[in-house]
Amino acid sequence: MSEKIERSIEELYRDDPERADALAFGRKSGPNRRGFLGGAGLAAMSAAVGGAIPFAANMPGGLIPAAMAQGAAPPAPPKGPIYLNFPGKNDKLVVIGERPLVAETPEHLLDDDTTPYEKFFIRNNGQIPDEAKEPDKWKFTVEGEVNNKLELTLGELKSKYKAQTRRMVLECGGNGRSFYSPKASGNQWTNGGAGCAEWTGVRLGDVLKAAGVKPSGIYTAHYSADLHLSGDATKPTLSRGVRLAKAMDPDSMIVWAMNGKPLPNIHGGPVRLLIPGWPGSASQKWLTKIVIRDKEHDGPGMTGTSYRLTINPMVPGDKADPKNFKILESMPVRSIITSPANGTKLPAGTREVKLRGASWAGDFTVKRVDVSTDYGVTWQPTKLEKGKNRFDWQRWTTAVKLPRDGYYEIWARAMDSRGLMQPHVAPNWNPSGYGGNPMHRVAVLIA
Ligand SMILES: Nc1nc2c(c(=O)[nH]1)N[C@H]1C(S)=C(S)[C@@H](COP(=O)(O)O)O[C@H]1N2
Ligand SMILES: [Mo]
Fold it and tell me: Residues in the chain with pLDDT < 50?
């Protein structure tokens, strides 16, 4: 895209925004269409500015984004969002995959301290099993490098082990994937492959101790009841595992309740794993078996470029060398702005906007969250809460002053307890797009 075209579109927006809208989006501007841009308009806009629009789905009409994202390659033309239609779920969750069903939560719907069931994202790799009729009779086994193979029903798990409840973030390993350029393959998550719920269950470590892990046992392998997408019952859908030390972490759990209610079927009920801070895929839903292994697990989702990051940084878009990948463990630091929503219009004369958000950092905590209203030229700190327990997200608030009417982007960036901060762009390109944690940006218009 030449500079000349970008400039001329900017000029056009400056001089006659309504005509620019009509030109860029092929439809008439006016009071009724102002608000939010749909699919075709976004594609045209992306093409016109020669880069991905950072907050693509809900951009206010009549505007040209002042800050363009990275990347010279034009993004694939975005389709309009498909909203989820699923029992009990909020109808503003966005479907990012229909088969298997995958849906994300727009950032502004993550404004509750505890994410309710209705807003919690959904990620499946295979077919969704039918709901268990008698949950307490659900069985799972613990076997492999153990002294006593266990077979437990959910009822026994509840009665024999000490229960605990923790509010913890569950985040898909691919969260943020859509921010990669060139495009990384997989579900195109923005920031909404995450939620923070109250999980009740027992320590996975207590169950493993009861099974008596042999000194040779160093890794877990998780199995479940969901059918492979093909319907082939001999193929596991997904089978991931973690290092034994992570499995023994007192916050790694086998859970049966979410927000005080029996774990819903869509979230893996009656029984799932909850391995906080690590890719959501380690948190096997519909758990039927844990095998303790004497080596790293090699089930579907453990090999090739799945849930793996590069060892030596690779050229973006190049062919991957499978030997150059290591397993993604702790998720990277991320913060989101949960209020205002992207695309909010505020009355002319508004000079202060209150912001709210959330932040989390895999196995670590968040040390600070800063916000900018001037494309990162200046930053101000926010008031950051601690979180109820380990792996809870940390809510933050602040108010920003906006000097005049007009278009603003609000950016937020978090820094973890090690001093690692969110980058401006999705870092360390890899073909399946893990680790994409660029700063979250929302657009607001004071007019
Ligand atoms: N059995 C099973 N467990 C699974 C999956 C799956 O497809 N099958 N998907 C995993 C992935 S990739 C994620 S991100 C989380 C999503 O959990 P949720 O659907 O409850 O939000 O479940 C994990 N556990
Ligand atoms: Mo995931």
Answer: 1-7, 26-53, 55-58, 60-71
Distance from residue 280's CA to the centre of ligand 2 (Å): 5
Q: What is the CATH classification number for the domain harbouring 189?
A: 3.90.420.10
pLDDT, one tens digit per residue, over 131-165 is: 999 999 999 999 999 999 999 999 999 999 999 99
DSSP string covering 137-199, please? G-EEEEEESBSS-EEEEHHHHHHHS-EEEEEEEEE-TTTTGGG-SSPPSS----S-SEEEEEE
Residue 394, φ and ψ in degrees, nearest 5: -110, 120
280 lines ligand 1 (CB under 6 A): yes
Does the CB atom of residue 299 touch ligand 1 within 6 A? no
Whole-number pLDDT of residue 221:
98
User: Angle 95-184-37 (CA atoms, 0-180°, nearest 5)?
Assistant: 45
Q: Does 295 share its domain with 167? A: yes
**326 pairs with which residues across the strands?**
309
Q: Whose CA is nearest to atom 15 of ligand 1?
A: 280
